[in-house]
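Lab channel / #folding
Pinned by the channel admin:
"Please post every new chain as: sequence first, then the structure tokens as a reply. Keep commentary short and put observations after the output so the thread stays searchable."

First post following the new format, from NK:
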Amino acid sequence: MIQHGRDAVDVAGVAQLAGMPLSTWRRKRHTEFAATVAALPGSKRPLLYDVAQVHAWLAGNPLPQLETNPAPHPDDLLTDAEVAKVVGVSPGTVRDEAADGRMHPGEELAGRRFWRRAVAEERRDRPKAYRGRTPGAKNRQPRDRPTDERARQVAAELAAAERGARKRVTAAELAERYGVSVRTAERTMARALELAE
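Reply from TO:
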């Protein structure tokens, strides 16, 4: 998280503030810098550093302390993982929704995407579009389907065949008549037998 009102930079930004190329910074000063100045909490690939602490370290001054448990502010910048915790979804869902336009696309900083806390809370408070089956639902029966008219016709034909009024009904015959596959015709016969019971 990047606290509101604070600026952050990655290693390339630190090198720029020091006035040297990145390769020179890494070779000559970064090890000493990283041992003294901690990366911001939650920053990964790239690691981000507080600009005020960077300036203090470069000037040889004591580092200003960051708040350890700051009060949440709507303008705090959160990573996808932090937004996911606020919303109650996975980080992948946050990235997918941002890419699909169902959520604010966020802001890019040092090649990483961040979202303001207000955006995360707005997403959390948005009503769900699909609630699915409620947790603890007792009714696990499949939904009732309307009876296929063909099943009623086949049931009548099966009854006629049983009485001897017509020849035996086959799935191949039904498939040809209704223009369906043999497997679909077999399912229709099964439903017709259920109707007959």
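NK: The longest strand covers residues 112-116.
TO: also worth noting, Strands lie at 8-9, 49-50, 77-78, 107-109, 112-116.
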